[in-house]
Amino acid sequence: MHALPDHMEQWLAHLQGHRRYSAHTLSGYRQDLHHLIQCHPDLTLERCTESHIRQAVARLHGQGLKPRSLARALAAWRGFFQWWAPQVGMESNPVAGVRAPKIPRSLPKALSVEQTQVLLDRPNLPAPQTAIDCRDQAMFEVLYSSGLRLAELVSLDWRYTRTANYESSSWIQPDEQEAIVKGKGGKTRSVPLGGKAMAAIALWLQKREQLLAGSADPDATAALFLGARGKRISPRVVQLQLNKLASLVGLPVHVHPHSLRHSFASHMLQSAQDLRAVQELLGHANISTTQIYTRLDFQHLAQAYDQAHPRANRKR
Q1: Active-site residue, 149 included
Q2: CATH code given to domain 6-88
Q3: Which terminus has fewer CB within 10 Å in the chain: N or C?
């Protein structure tokens, strides 16, 4: 992938330094900006119009980009021009009037309560003993206990740290049995850590030094979860280790870290029936997002109907 023009690089640096965007989001935005340049290689961006943007969307759609990818590309372009257009005297943001294509609302796959228990209880497998096994158990317990996004999980520090070279953005507070998490848009929230998660974290912290191996890297020194080389663990490693465990315990489904977030939301909603509380725990800005990311099975809905509706009178 070729380098971007300087003004685009400056915008990405602004998002990273001032808006604290994640590396994953920045990587996606970088790709989206490349798409725009590739669609109009001879266009001077100061002359970009709404028509050019619509042509670019149509071309990317023709190349097979899905509605969700096109929506993200438009968000990246809109954000860039909003930041850059005033600097070069453009009269308006050429992306402002372009709507993203409608994204199908599909329910994410969540594990059942029984499947989640099998995954975390590890039947027929020995109890975690090695540093890697203890780390993995702690990571997966935290994901299910708190409904964290994958990026939020790997950003956790084992305590709040502030030095001349480093300051924590997310960390655990064992005494309060909670984690302080900086999520999407730089919003900070507090999420609970259940008893199983706290026990798994405590066991992992006893082994953590084995992976840290005297590293002087401030980020690694602060990180709660470490990779085999002593650096902060990468999202990809979390994905691979979770899928490995799912295979070992015999789950017949592909398990992604986000599956545990969806499972957390679904199981919480089935038990508590409090959509607003689940929205807060997940860190969703809009409750409509929570409604998509969570799932109530029909049996639970039927039970709620039977109990609540004065004229249900249904026999099971």
Answers
A1: yes
A2: 1.10.150
A3: C
Residue with more model confidence, 110 or 47? 47
Note whether 233 and 226 are within 8 A (CB): yes
AA identity, residue 141:
E
Residue 306 has pLDDT above 70, yes or no: no
Query: Is 207 a residue of the active site?
Result: no
Which candidate in 122, 184, 196, 231 is catalytic? 184
Domain at 113-293: CATH code: 1.10.443.10
Going from N- to C-terminal start, the domains of the chain cover: 6-88, 113-293
- Is-same-fold flag (6-88; 113-293)? no
Using a pLDDT cut of 70, give the percent of the chain over it: 83
pLDDT band with cut points at 50, 70 and 90 for residue 167: very high
What is the reported pTM?
0.63
Residue 54 known to be catalytic: no
**Is 258 an active-site residue?**
yes
Per annotation, catalytic residue among 149, 182, 208, 267: 149
